[in-house]
């Protein structure tokens, strides 16, 4: 069997590589760590001279590599859709490429691939990872038929923990979801069957991870407490109004008496 033209080409290219030495990629930014909201720059440089036709940045997901940004002298640069307003090339040198996320989000955590299309070698790639540290949380509750359900949500990296300041013997249930990039979502649900017992004291959800800590108080608007307070305020206002009316009436009476007396008396 005769070797085909393709195999000869491949053989030639591999020989060329052996002679010239295949270029390598240096990832200056092997593992970038930033706080959420800060800028993050990823950079790759090709070590040996080569004719770079195109540079492509991809996100390295478990199943597929999605294109983020491409640049070639022929076609110019393009930032692909979900990334368009969030990042840009910060170096348009073909053998020394960098991209910058203006405000990194938790979802940007992951590894990225820089792909150089080099003549005559083909694709040569480097890999660089980004970790974005952050924590966000929210809390909400509802009461129905004296039954209180409070739900606290936290999303963060590294893994957050949730605790409640409740001094009751209620144990919260917790659900965790770890996203493929390591970001953790936690939901803690606290059910209190006797919602009256917490009317005197506020409930607080405490969320923390290695970097941050936050407290999310719940102001329970206890319906009975609220209406009782409203009644007290209304009564107070009514009392003040009644007192004011009484004072005005008595003043008027006195003034009237005086003026009547004055009129009946001869002035001179
Ligand atoms: C990168 O390309 C420039 C020309 O665009 C060249 O002058 C430089 O030597 C190249 N650097 C390397 C490391 O190949
Ligand atoms: C992105 O960077 C390129 C090259 O530096 C520049 O021409 C372009 O205006 C930038 N785009 C935005 C949206 O900043
Ligand atoms: C109260 O919370 C429960 C549990 O999350 C939810 O199923 C229900 O729809 C909520 N009710 C209201 C009125 O928000």
TrEMBL record:
GO terms for cellular component: axon; cell surface; membrane; neuronal cell body. It is a single-pass type I membrane protein. The chain crosses the membrane at residues 226-249. InterPro entries: CD200_Ig_V_dom (IPR033321), CD80_C2-set (IPR013162), Ig-like_dom (IPR007110), Ig-like_dom_sf (IPR036179), Ig-like_fold (IPR013783), Ig_sub (IPR003599), Ig_V-set (IPR013106), OX2G-like (IPR047164). It is found in: Membrane. CDD domains: IgV_1_MRC-OX-2_like. Pfam families: C2-set_2, V-set. Its main location: membrane. One of its GO terms (molecular function) is cell-cell adhesion mediator activity. GO terms for biological process: heterotypic cell-cell adhesion; negative regulation of macrophage activation; negative regulation of neuroinflammatory response; regulation of immune response. Residues 23-114, 152-217 form the Ig-like domain. Residues 1-21 form the signal peptide. Gene3D superfamilies: Immunoglobulins. PROSITE patterns: IG_LIKE. It comes from the Eukaryota. Keywords: Disulfide bond, Glycoprotein, Immunoglobulin domain, Membrane, Signal, Transmembrane, Transmembrane helix. PANTHER family: OX-2 MEMBRANE GLYCOPROTEIN. This is Ig-like domain-containing protein.
